[in-house]
Amino acid sequence: MSVLLETSLGDLVIDLEVDSCPKTCENFLKLCKVYYYNLNAFFNVQKDFLAQAGDPTASGTGGESIWSYIHSNSSSTTTDAVPRFFPPEITTKLKHNAKGTVSMAVAPSSESGISGCASQFFITLMDNAEYLDGVHAVFGHVVEGLDTLDKINDVFVNRDFRPLKDIRIRHVVILDDPFSDPPGLSAITPPAPPTRPPDAGSGHVVIGEDEDPLTENIPEDEQERQRRLAAAASSALTLEMVGDLPFANVRPPENVLFVCKLNAVTRDEDLELIFSRFGVIMSCQVIRDKKTGDSLQYAFIEFDKREDAEQAYFKMQNVLVDDRRIWVDFSQSVAKANQFWSNDIKRGLPRTDSKAKHGYGGREDLVQTRRYRDQDTSRREEYGMVFDVPTRRRRSASPRRDDKRDRDRDRGKRERDYDRDRDRRRR
């Protein structure tokens, strides 16, 4: 039988000892059901000792059992008094020997003079607190959320052990309840959880759990900028986890330009010649379709210096190239920083593997152009074309003409030349 406490510092899942402490567990579960603990504060946090909650007044003197709460909130005119406390169920087999032990705070009853339990409980923040055995009644253990307990343990408190910044139970979810409801419980159960802390206006709160004193004097636009940076960092971490980024703090290179709206006939050599007047170009790649070899009409140009890339960015915007006005921007791609192609990360294939040489820029349907493949002097006579054709040796290779007419030739003539050359070799 379990209960989930959603606190301002994280979630806590508590398993209850319903067999050993049935009355205590019933009291706790039914108080949770009527939203008694919602928006309650941890009013007593002692480092490496305990964190105490369950008092609506956050003073350490309030709280009552579920049976007393039903009686005090019902419209019944009966005069029979219902005790505020009930006798603690202290068993010898349940001890305060582990961090995360949940125990009812046992205090002397002002009505009868005997010890009793009401609604206040605490969670131990240390191991081996056996000196609490026999004094307070253990009824559960934290099974999930020990990291939340560490956060609670590290908060700053005043001399009364009240956290300087509120820690509140935002919501309580009953995961399993084996007990039937006591008479009158449904009549006093609120239709919705409370939206106002029960101790509001008491003067105990120093800093609200939803307040940040470090940003009170920061302008709104600066706060918005910080929120955007935090959101961007979170998104980058997610992309790193799924493999889209090599690491979360990676930044796009400042010396690489992205050029789009190109004419389909524009080649790598054309762009490099045009942009080389701004500085030394390390690489210039027109991205092509893997299957057809057609230009996808965008390219990446890497300069040796960032200043050269900036100058080209300002000078080449909307410039006419091959009857097309190109668009120039700084590249936002980080694929160059990765040691593996993005589409091979999912397979775990290194870049040097033969199976990993398909794809470019994270896409299966793209391929690097011949000029920027690995150069091997022993294989200079191979075609190295961008479409899917078998690589064979050719007897002769006439140099490619670089005039304007060559750029306007269609791809079909090159394919026919290749087929004719292949048939000649077979004969």
TrEMBL record:
Belongs to the cyclophilin-type PPIase family. PPIL4 subfamily. GO terms for molecular function: peptidyl-prolyl cis-trans isomerase activity; RNA binding. It comes from the Eukaryota. Residues 6-174 form the PPIase cyclophilin-type domain. Its main location: nucleus. It comes from Collybiopsis confluens. This is Peptidyl-prolyl cis-trans isomerase. One of its GO terms (cellular component) is nucleus. Keywords: Isomerase, Nucleus, RNA-binding, Rotamase. Residues 255-333 form the RRM domain. Residues 351-383, 399-427 have a biased composition (Basic and acidic residues). It catalyses: [protein]-peptidylproline (omega=180) = [protein]-peptidylproline (omega=0). The lineage of its organism: Eukaryota, Fungi, Dikarya, Basidiomycota, Agaricomycotina.
